[in-house]
Amino acid sequence: MRLRTSYRYPLYATFAALVLTGAGWLVSDWQKDVAGDEIWQQIAANLLMVHGGMAMLALLLLGALIPLHVQRSWRSGQNLGSGSVMAAINAVLIMTAFGLYYLGSEAVRPFMSWIHLGAGFALAMMLPLHVWLGRRARR
């Protein structure tokens, strides 16, 4: 169940921006602790702001993806394994993002952060696999 180009490219670009800003934030957050330069603090803050904006766009695109792609693919029985993993990873990312943004508990925050980072990088690996499996099944 291939997505239209007008939807597919913005979706890929949004997820690429999320991965890049997330990875960039991770590096800059590590650098601010190592180097102690204030520039790294500013870079981390800006990357986090862009990451949050991209996440809002991703939520809109994921919401549109449900009737356009997920429901149709589920009914036709196509690519259910990797599609289910994609949906689960996105759900984990949404829940942990909510927790990171709204929960003020310093005891829970590191745990949420590691789960969010792991799920984000898992999604970065899973998305190309999901697309490849879908294209392979179409042939």
Rg, Å, rounded: 17 Å
Q: Return residue spans where pLDDT drops below 50 for at least 5 consecutive residues.
A: none
Query: In sequence order, what are the helices and strands, one letter per element?
Result: HHHH
End-to-end C-alpha gap:
12 Å
What is the number of helical segments per DSSP (H or I, 4+ residues)?
4
**Which structural category do the helix and sheet elements fall into?**
mainly alpha
For the record, the count of structural domains works out to 1
Shape: elongated
Beta-strand percent range: under 5%
Query: Overall pLDDT, averaged?
Result: 93
Describe the main β-sheet briefly: none
Overview of this protein structure:
This protein is mainly α. The protein has one domain. It is built from four helices and no strands. α1 runs antiparallel to α2 and α3 runs antiparallel to α4. The chain is elongated. It starts with a helix and ends with a helix. The mean pLDDT is 93.
List the helices and strands and how they pair.
Layout: H1 5-34, H2 38-76, H3 80-102, H4 109-138
Which features does this protein show?
single chain, 139 residues, mainly alpha, 4 helices, 0% strand
Structure described in brief:
Helices cover 88% and strands 0% of the residues. It is an all-alpha fold and 139 residues long.
